[in-house]
Amino acid sequence: MSDSSSDGSLVSVVIATFNKCEYTKRCLEGLLRSIHRPLEVIIVDNGSTDDTPALLRAYAAEGERRGAPFKLIFNKTNRGASTARNQGIDAAVGEYVAFLDNDVGVRTLTWIERMMEAFKQNPKAGIISPKLLFPFPPNPIQCAGAEVSPTGRVNFTGRGEPNDLPQYNRSRSVQCAISASWMVRADVIRKAGYFDEYFNPVQYEDIDYCYRVRHLGYRVLYIPSVEMYHFENVTTARSSGINNRYLLVKNGMKFKERWRFMYSKEGGTPEGQMTWKDIARWPLDRIPPMEFTM
């Protein structure tokens, strides 16, 4: 991999927060250890009622010291994932825009450089997605790209599988990927537009966006050389006022209706062959400190 940090491209990182202060702290600490500069961090808080606002202000000062200035946007209420990300897009000025969920932790410190390099090597790539790992040993795969069956069911590739299996350690185009960790070219965003607020408060807005980008002729590319920790559904399934199961069904139907003309003809894995491994959750106080790689 060539040193793409030397090109001086500004990267904007957009994070939406809603409570879960301790997870956000892990996310921001790993982010500020990331190697690439120049970097701007845009955080849109969706009406947190815990210590998140104070934490964000403290890390904003730390970001200034570490050469990664923050832009903080505080919403009075939870305006939804799509709206928050769109606010972040409006504030972003980078050539590349990365999206992180606040329950994601950086593992590969050169993640930005590697994603930028992937864009350079793949000019038709519109979205780059890393390998997401569960944050507890032995760090099985949480998501290595995502697939859609001919009937519209979405499945996380590699979920629960060992990290070192060869089939999950090859770069490849995928039907879609979850936006827990993404990088998108800013010029692609200008063509594709905002996240659709039709999917608020959460669920399927990212899968819909992948299909919109692909419909424009771009690729969604999975690269295993970047690894991130993902606690999975901390912001959605464990937040008061969000009925995650209901939203999965409701917004899943919206996605199916909109994109059936594409996914039904893509030859994806048949629904009956898809598996979803139940992974036992670890409480945060049992999760070991983050390990970093280059």
Q: Note the run of SSEs as H and E.
A: EHEHEHEEHEEEEEEHHEH
Distance between the termini: 12 Å
Overall tally of domains: 1
The CATH superfamily is known as: Spore Coat Polysaccharide Biosynthesis Protein SpsA, Chain A
CATH architecture assignment: Alpha-Beta Complex
Task: Indicate the topology.
Elements: E1 11-17, H1 21-33, E2 39-46, H2 52-65, E3 70-75, H3 81-91, E4 96-101, E5 104-106, H4 111-121, E6 125-133, E7 141-143, E8 146-148, E9 154-156, E10 172-174, E11 181-185, H5 186-192, H6 205-215, E12 219-230, H7 244-263
Protein traits:
single chain; 294 residues; Spore Coat Polysaccharide Biosynthesis Protein SpsA, Chain A; two-stranded antiparallel ribbon; 12 strands; 23% strand; disordered N terminus
Can you walk me through this structure?
The protein is α/β, with parallel strands linked by helices. The chain has a single domain (8-274), classed as Spore Coat Polysaccharide Biosynthesis Protein SpsA, Chain A, CATH 3.90.550.10. It is built from seven helices and twelve strands. The strands form two sheets. Strands 1, 2, 3, 4, 5, 6, 7, 10, 11 and 12 form a ten-stranded mixed beta sheet that branches. Strand 8 (146-148) and strand 9 form a beta hairpin. Helix 1 (21-33) runs parallel beside helix 2 and helix 6 runs parallel beside helix 7.
Summed up, what is this model?
Helices cover 30% and strands 23% of the residues. The protein is of the alpha/beta class and 294 residues long.
